[in-house]
Amino acid sequence: MALPTAVRLFEMGARDGLQNESGPVIDTAIKVELINRLSETGLKHIEAASFVSPKWVPQMGDASEVMSGIDRKPGVIYSALTPNLKGLEAAIAAGVDEVAVFGAASEAFTQKNINCSIKESLERFAPVIELAKANHIRVRGYVSTVMGCPYEGEIAPAQVAAVSRELLDMGCYEISLGDTIGVGTPLKAKRMLEAVSQQVPIDKLAAHFHDTYGQALANLYAVIEEGIAVIDASVAGLGGCPYAKGASGNVATEDVLYMLNGLSIETGVDLHKLALTGHWISAQLGRSSGSKVALAMGCQGS
Ligand SMILES: CC(C)(COP(=O)([O-])OP(=O)([O-])OC[C@H]1O[C@@H](n2cnc3c(N)ncnc32)[C@H](O)[C@@H]1OP(=O)([O-])[O-])[C@@H](O)C(=O)NCCC(=O)NCCSC(=O)C[C@@](C)(O)CC(=O)[O-]
């Protein structure tokens, strides 16, 4: 299949990135400034917060304050995770544009992450999706552990396909396929996608790959060759997953953008501004950017 002419980048840094930071809870003002800076790069889709239990993920405990603190740039969609009705109600009150439910293809990961079975998770999501739709809010669905689980190991592509199909049938507009612990390789990614795309049209799928084993760009190239045109990524490669020990961040948005620019695939995102934002947030966290491209570009100014 020909490569897509355009790709939509879905920025994860403020949520998937920051949720996993150990140490003190990051100031709300820093989260707000990160999102505001990201909004100026041309990104049109920013996951800004997570309305989950603060006991489970302390870094996301100020989701409402973050949402009320940011400058909403017209044309940018600000989304948040909502695992249950309590989260959705808070997200609606905070004025999110879009929400996401998050399940997994692995029973053990689902238990560790959201404290229920896959079946129970889908039952829990049903009223969330219903209420979101009644409020004219679109719902995205995540499926984690699509290429491997930290607790169960190998995950059958058919299982990924089944959970993805359920979420689509329940009303999610898009299913994001998460290689939560970054264990995938290109052939595995293609095989997983082949199974899923028999159940969910490829234009309703997104790739959400972590870079733990340094395979994320190769895996992304493999799936865009198959028609994937939505990519989740995290500025400066921030993040990991609090319930997946050893998982490193999402692939760095700067690195994905550099690759897409090289392929003449349109994104509308300014690489220089994005790299500056990545250096800025990395400095706030007391480290260097996790993006190889940003480091190579060397633009450290604010
Ligand atoms: C789902 C629950 C809440 C179940 O957790 P639970 O303990 O089974 O829930 P519960 O209903 O028994 O409630 C326990 C306490 O949490 C409170 N609570 C309950 N819900 C909420 C809420 N929405 N907001 C705020 N507080 C909430 C509730 O009020 C209660 O408070 P208490 O009475 O003890 O004071 C919990 O397991 C949880 O919050 N998990 C979140 C885990 C998480 O955020 N993981 C990271 C995101 S997923 C991810 O990163 C992967 C992804 C998406 O990026 C894709 C990939 O890379 O693969």
Automatic annotation (TrEMBL):
EC category name: lyase
GO biological process: one example: ketone body biosynthetic process
Chain ranges of the Pyruvate carboxyltransferase domain: 7-275
Record key words, sorted: Lyase, Metal-binding
Family annotation (InterPro entries): Aldolase_TIM (IPR013785), HMG_CoA_lyase_AS (IPR000138), HMGL (IPR043594), PYR_CT (IPR000891)
Reaction equations catalysed: (3S)-3-hydroxy-3-methylglutaryl-CoA = acetoacetate + acetyl-CoA
Nuclease recorded as keyword: no
The protein's name: hydroxymethylglutaryl-CoA lyase
Source organism of the structure: Amphritea opalescens
Taxonomic lineage from the root: Bacteria, Pseudomonadati, Pseudomonadota, Gammaproteobacteria, Oceanospirillales
